[in-house]
Every structure is written in C-alpha cells, then in structure tokens.
# Entry
Amino acid sequence: DGSGVKRLTKSPGYDAEATVSPDGKTIVFTSMRDGDLDIYSMDRNGKNVKRLTDALGYDGGPFFSPDGKQIVYRSYHPKTEAEIARYKDRLANDLIEPANFEVWVMNADGSNKRQVTKLGDASFAPYFHPSGKKIIFSSNHLAKDERKRNFDILMINLDGTGLERITTYESFDGFPMFSPDGKKLVFASNRNAKKRGDTNVFIADWVE
# Structure
C-alpha cells in the first residue's frame, strides 16, 4: 500500500535499476559509487553490498532468472581509444548517450559472465523466459529505417542461438516482462499513440 518506505542506499550519485531475487532476500541494482556504471547486489535490508561487474562501460538493467541462480543484464563496453575517451568524458559530466548495448548473463555471485547477443545494435531490457532457458529483450536490430528508431521485442536462447522476433510493430516495443506463470507478456509500446512519443503499457497472451 506504499507504506513503510525505507532508504537502502546512501552513496552519492546514481543508485537505480533495482530488482529483487525470487526468494526476496537479495536486491541487484546499478550504481556509480565506484566511478563507473556497474551492477551490485545487497541484502534486502541494504547490507552486504557486493560489486558484481567491473569492466569499463555501462552494465545495468539486471534481472534474476526464475531460480535465482543467474542474472541477465545489458551492457556497453567501449573498445577503441576514442570510444573509451568519449565514454569517460560523458560519464565525468554525469551523461550517458545511446549505445550499442548487448545482452549478457552471469551467475548471481558475479561469476561466469558471458555475452549472449552479438548484434551490434541497441539491445536492452532483457528478461528471463519462465523456463530460464531463453531471454526476451528489446532491440532495433531488425529496424529498416535509417535512424533505427524501430524497436521490436526479440527472444534468444541462453547460448546466443535461435534468435526470433516476437513483435512486428513499426515503432517502439520494449521493456518486456513475463507473468510468474508464463501465461502473459507485458510490455511498453508506442502503438495506438495519439501523438509521437506517447507510450503505454500493453499485455498479451503468451503462446509457445
């Protein structure tokens, strides 16, 4: 009912993108507390904070797998000297620009990090399929417009195979999430918008 609000983090800057483990005991979130955008875990009371990612770049949007053993997230790691310099400069000014995010998975303790997508585009908002064997996410990988503004919902196996398209609307579909029983898919979309930029929440039956 919105009561009992308690502050869990006190570091200056950005602490956000928090989600809770299936057993309700652990929270994962993105923070700039150590100078870069990385993923951290903590107990639900805010104690035992642990850094899970440490590669230069933006690691964020973490969600647990249904069994709580893995975490899916989206990541951008600058590679060239120019990319690194630009990223650090923007970060120093508390700025982030759109980037070619990829989907990654790691164990809940931060070990065994592996890249799932290698699409070279903006792939973000990943979420586990209820089976724990696939990941659903939003991407402009299949966009045909020159500026690649069309984002669709895609799904892929954990090993990076079996990419499939879930939505085909010619605008924005994103932030997909399954209901706990796997029967419904909820997502944000610009479809039926009365003016450009209008975004609403939609729900659809999920049929395998």
In short: The mean pLDDT is 94. The chain is about 5% helix and 40% strand.
